[in-house]
Amino acid sequence: MSEYIDQDQAGVSVGIVEKCFFTFAAPPDRLKLESGASIGPVTIAYETCGTLNPEKSNVILVLHALSGDSHMAGYYDPKDAKPGWWDIMVGPGKGIDTDKYFVICSNIIGSCAGSTGPASINPETNKAYGTSFPLITIGDMVEAQKALMDYLGISTLLSLIGGSVGGMQVLEWCVRYPDMVTSAIPLATTTRHSALAIAFNEVARQAIMADPNWNQGHYYSGKKPDMGLAIARMIGHITYLSDESMRLKFGRKLQNRSALSFEFGAEFQVESYLQHQGNKFIERFDANSFLYITKAADYFDLAVQYGSGSLVKAFSLCKSKFLVVSYTSDWLYPTYQSKEMVKAMKKNNLDVSFCEIDAQWGHDAFLLPSNRLDNLIKGFLRGVSDET
Amino acid sequence: MSEYIDQDQAGVSVGIVEKCFFTFAAPPDRLKLESGASIGPVTIAYETCGTLNPEKSNVILVLHALSGDSHMAGYYDPKDAKPGWWDIMVGPGKGIDTDKYFVICSNIIGSCAGSTGPASINPETNKAYGTSFPLITIGDMVEAQKALMDYLGISTLLSLIGGSVGGMQVLEWCVRYPDMVTSAIPLATTTRHSALAIAFNEVARQAIMADPNWNQGHYYSGKKPDMGLAIARMIGHITYLSDESMRLKFGRKLQNRSALSFEFGAEFQVESYLQHQGNKFIERFDANSFLYITKAADYFDLAVQYGSGSLVKAFSLCKSKFLVVSYTSDWLYPTYQSKEMVKAMKKNNLDVSFCEIDAQWGHDAFLLPSNRLDNLIKGFLRGVSDET
């Protein structure tokens, strides 16, 4: 969505950052997963911005979404064309102010940007795991992040923040490690996928698995299932936008044409845009990772996992302060789902602020420049920081 | 959607019907298409129910949607498991009363249920057209229907009725042949596809074209692109439902399981349902027809084609009375699009009734049993019939 980002609004970047790695669960140790399976060793790619204070009390953990990575802000190299994915939010004086906070972001396990996932080499076979990689959950992602915190000697998180699948990790952290979490900001997220969200994910997975190059997930020594992954991304991308944003951005405008072609192929701008998004995605993302992470998101169900079906009971495990944010045009995780979450939090007398931001850009709005969101987050963090 | 249909509500069926064929544009004649291309001969499969009165003034033309066919009501054979696709609406005493009206439904050109389309044999090559079939438009479909009316000696249509892509044909008829159309009932439709609707169609088409069996559209002597077509259908099917209907029907219920499998494959009921819909569809539908009809729907733009961009100007060509119906939970062709249409009709002082039906079943609601819709249509047709 980088084309929406007005770099003038981005302010001062955090500058040059480094991609760090941490490996744990090294043999004979293993990371036990919720499925009952285990993996090891597990490597976590992560990035930090800002300075950890001596009390180690200024830590903010940023949790990324489906296709994100640990590179949240700044540049690896001054020549990089683009900064990290949330550079508009993380940096000196920004919503998450790196002059004040020590901000950490790690690549989720199951992904493909440095952390262990299906494209990683299985040390037992010296080949890529492929689909021999066990299914993972949002809880498993959080366990890996917890191991990273232990490694960094961090026992208290001033705040957790993440949108979409990142927001699910935020919520999972709050119920799994309530004593570590002071505050949490779940953005544009849900406590469980609706049938509609599962449906889109399943069709996207089917598109990948229908690609003959997918080869049951073992394609790392041959051709990749690029067509399938591009289609999966296009399906996903539609759900990240909204009827209104697509009408404003594309409408029925034709791409480099003044009249209909009467041929198949992209001729409406929205078609070219989606194909472009699909083609960009296959250069940076692994098809199996798409399968694993979407499945983890579909499995996530806070009420069932922690409350025997009751969301109120699940949130009774939490102790943190919350800022919950939803967007008016987000039809993937609509506001009513955030409201359910907020209601269950309030029934537990948790300190929760809720804001529905009026935005036309659909689910992706949480990644776009917004003074409203910047100020909400800045104010919320200042309050939490002052209290502690 | 037949599982939703309560046959008790269906009333008396029209009984045994016959699939009829009519061929025109036989060499050296050709049907000229809007693209500038032409085809011939052209065969139209059609069905009639009820009796044509001596004045030929009781004709109702039913226009089917994307995946429909001419078999709208009754049974071809007493042993058939299911009647025609709109048997709940068309029959003695039903919304479209075959005791009063002579009801015609024809398969659209470009389709694959008897009318000429990409799977038909091109007499010039003695092979299936495949993608050598020219692109068609909603206007071309209407031209073929007009030829059928001429053949049947019908010069006045008491009413036209159709939902979705069928509704587009209704509207096209009204501007193309205003003197023939007394009244028209466009249901759950639009005067032009939004970028969102085009986006879903394009991704579905990409899924078909990514299937190696598609073979640039020439697959009729080999394996069919079943996987691609199934995925295309699944994408479409999601857009026909709604968040609410999927929550009520499926929620997060598992299929034949009590716990998560931690394996890929359909385990949520909504996943099984979509796969079932995809697998059923490939048995009866041609992948190329899916490409051609969705493209025709994407091309449809009444304002651009007939009003130099003005919908008001386009509807100034119409003379018929209208009943426009939309559904609250239809997010493919939302109510605001019907309201735009109604507004443009009213600016031309056309006699138009508009009804937004409160229904949770999304776009597909127009195909489901509804006393509300039955009564609306019955009342409207009675009014039109009495006036003429």
- String of helices and strands of chain A: EEEEEEEEEEHEHEHHHHHHHEHEH
What is the domain tally of chain A? 1
**CATH fold category name of chain A:** Rossmann fold
If helices are DSSP runs of H or I spanning 4 or more residues, what is the number of helices of chain A?
11
- What is the residue-mean pLDDT of chain A, rounded to a whole number? 95
Instruction: Give me the count of strands of chain A.
Output: 14
Low-confidence stretches of chain A: 1-8
Which structural class do the helices and strands of chain A define? alpha/beta
Oligomer kind: homodimer
Percentage of helical residues of chain A? Answer: 25-40%
| Biggest chain-to-chain interface with counts | A-B, 59 and 59 residues
Question: What's the CATH class of chain A, please?
Answer: Alpha Beta
User: What form of chain A results from the Cα inertia axes?
Assistant: globular
User: What can be said about the biggest beta sheet of chain A?
Assistant: 8 strands, mixed
Distance between the termini of chain A: 36 Å
Spatial order of the strands in the main sheet of chain A? 1-4-8-5-11-12-13-14
CATH A-level architecture of chain A: 3-Layer(aba) Sandwich
